[in-house]
Amino acid sequence: LDPAGPLFPRDPTRRLDKNDGVFVDVIHTCANVLGYKDAIGHVDFYPNGGTCFQPGCALLDLTRGTCSHNRAIDFMEESIRGGVFTAYPCKGTSTVPDFDRADESIVMGLNTPITSNGSYCLTTNNASPFALDPNKQKKVTAVHISGPDDQFKSRVYRTFMRRGVDSQMI
Asked: What values do phi and psi take at 103, rounded to 5?
């Protein structure tokens, strides 16, 4: 759950890696601050872009991202209690959900299939219940995101999500 980034080297023998278990399932929620950004598991999930700050977390979090870092725990707990987090393959190298590949969607959390592989993206609510119905996810990301490349689109998406926009505002 949001593998630690600070003080952990890039060397896979000294940090979490897909060779550490039969199935390594990673949920990134504070990449580049308290968490690790790169895909390092068999399956890597990037809720709301995977970066700080997760929707519902204060932009000026005095504890430097702990709300976002701990959000991975909230998501897993909700999945254990029955919440269904539908995740889609990420668009290219970005952390934006590719809704055109909905037939390849999987569930994030307790019920992630152990045959899963790759990077998956999804949108969540600002507060519990965090899991969004797939149709609401599409509405949240329906704002036209255009730009020269996937990296630009990912940056726009993360900015949009960081502001805590939910489907009611669209």
From this structure: -70, -10
169: tokens are 């505002």
**How confident is the model at residue 141, as a pLDDT?**
52
Average pLDDT over residues 10-33: 85
Supply 2's token pair: 């949001």
Question: At a CB cut-off of 8 Å and minimum separation 6, what does 169 contact?
Answer: none
pLDDT at 45 over 60: yes
The pTM of the whole model exceeds 0.70: yes
Domain annotation for the chain: domains and CATH numbers: 12-169 (3.40.50.1820)
Q: Say which amino acid occupies 34.
A: L
- Write the pLDDT tens digit of every residue in 138-157: 655 544 344 445 555 455 55
Q: Which one, of 104, 138, 99, lies nearest residue 118 by Cα?
A: 104
**What's the pLDDT at 1?**
79
Distance CA 34, CA 64 (A): 8
